[in-house]
Specification:
Elements lengths: L3 H13 L3 H25 L6 H9 L3 H32 L6 H22 L1 H30 L16 H10 L20 H30 L2 H6 L4 H5 L1 H40 L10 E2 L2 E2 H14 L4 H25 L1 H4 L3 H25 L1 H28 L1
Antiparallel strand pairs: 1-2
Helix pairs in contact: 1-2, 1-4, 1-7, 2-7, 2-8, 2-13, 2-15, 3-4, 3-13, 4-5, 4-11, 4-12, 4-13, 4-16, 5-11, 5-12, 6-8, 6-11, 7-15, 11-12, 13-15, 13-16, 15-16
Length: 409
């Protein structure tokens, strides 16, 4: 359970309306199919490189695999921007630094990225400690929200918003699920710790499927409570901090503050871990000769990719809006997950995989990616162009690097 639910819930409801729980279920279905492919690949190729290793195993060391791994790194950066944007939105509801909300959000987003970067440079063990406590506290607050929220639905005036008559068309609901697909990307990180899982043959698949299923159910329930507790106009007005607003009908202003604090803890912990993970992806890609070897060098006590990741995140979060960032993150991970399923299909005999499940993963993730890009092209062209720009840049950078290296040889 990352910071994604706090960042994209309002965006999902704006697209799917009363059908938002179904949107999360559709996205969750894709995540579960892909989790199965990840589990099989993690068992066969346990490596701290995770997805980077899978791409190399599936397609060899080439421009395509290198470009895909670059896309993974860029997608981490986009996710960091999404978490920082969500952090700033919730922080601004609690403490206003200046009379200008937009300026406040830029300040909060920038400060939290710099703070997390500093922690990563200071001591990586602190990152792990923060994650342990933050995840436990976050889950406690979210489960409390679910319990109180479900009780509140019994006397809510907005419960009728969940009726079929208030659903968006099924295509818009599906696209809503794709826009917020980033809320499920955390499952991918299990691959990076696959070499350290005890009794992997027994526990690996369970680790992926049970954790993903829990998150899917949790997000669907949260969507039901939010849509059933707040009017659509109220959700629209509080889109960037809607989960805190959804606590108000039952818990009042105290509930709002509690959930807002949970959002701050959640998004900060996500930023803290993703900066670390992003720099490691960058390091692994460079180690595989798919980026310049300068990225394997140490700056202070961490790979130089940590610093580059943070700088790029600061640029993106201060230029693009939440919907554009979310679109780009979802598009990147849908494409990556499609290719992970493709590797699982290609290596199905070697990894003892199910060809039907991995093939469905290819088809559904591919269709979801195309559907998302087509819909966003008409409704959010900036977001669509930003997503396409990141994808093209990922492969172009790899092509230029490989070509330059061949000339040197």
């Amino acid at each position: 359970v990352g910071g994604g639910i706090f960042a994209v819930l309002g965006l999902a409801i704006s697209l799917a309306k009363g059908g938002t729980p179904l949107a999360f279920a559709i996205a969750g279905f894709l995540a579960l199919i892909t989790a199965n492919s990840y589990a099989k690949l993690s068992l066969a190729y346990p490596s701290s490189g995770g997805t980077v290793t899978f791409m190399t195993k599936g397609f060899g060391k080439c421009v395509f695999s290198g470009g895909t791994n670059n896309l993974l790194w860029f997608s981490y950066i986009v996710m960091l921007s999404l978490y920082a944007s969500a952090f700033s939105s919730y922080a601004n509801t609690l403490w206003s630094i200046t009379p200008y909300p937009v300026l406040n959000q830029h300040i909060y987003a920038s400060v939290i990225i710099i703070a997390a970067t500093s922690i990563n440079y200071y001591n990586v063990k602190i990152v792990s400690l923060i994650e342990t406590w933050a995840v436990g506290l976050k889950m406690t607050i979210l489960l409390f929200f679910v319990g109180v929220g479900l009780y509140g639905l019994t006397f809510s005036d907005q419960i009728s918003q969940l009726n079929l008559s208030n659903w968006s068309p099924i295509l818009e609901i599906s696209i809503g699920g794709m826009v917020i697909f980033v809320a499920y990307e955390g499952m991918e990180l299990i691959a990076n710790v696959s070499p350290y899982i005890v009794d992997a043959k027994r526990n690996m698949t369970r680790a992926y499927l049970i954790s993903t299923a829990i998150v899917v159910v949790l997000y669907i329930v949260i969507a039901i409570i939010t849509v059933g507790s707040l009017s659509f106009s109220g959700i629209e007005n509080a889109q960037d901090y809607v989960l805190a607003e959804a606590a108000k009908p039952v818990m009042g202003q105290t509930g709002f503050k509690v959930i807002a604090v949970a959002a701050l803890i959640s998004t900060f912990s996500a930023i803290n871990a993703t900066i670390y993970g992003g720099s490691k992806v960058n390091y692994e890609v460079a180690k595989d000769d798919e980026l310049p070897h300068e990225f394997t060098k140490i700056f202070w006590n961490e790979p130089i990719g940590l610093f580059v990741t943070s700088i790029l995140t600061l640029i993106i979060v201060n230029i693009f809006d939440l919907s554009s960032i979310s679109t780009s993150g979802s598009a990147g991970f849908l494409l990556i997950f499609m290719l992970v399923n493709a590797v699982a299909f290609k290596k199905r005999n070697e990894i003892c995989g199910n060809k039907v499940i991995s093939f469905l993963g290819i088809v559904f993730c591919g269709a979801a990616f195309l559907g998302l890009m087509m819909q966003q092209w008409s409704s959010n062209r900036t977001g669509a162009l930003f997503a396409l720009g990141i994808i093209i840049a990922s492969y172009l950078i790899e092509f230029v690097y490989k070509t330059t290296e061949k000339r040197r040889e």
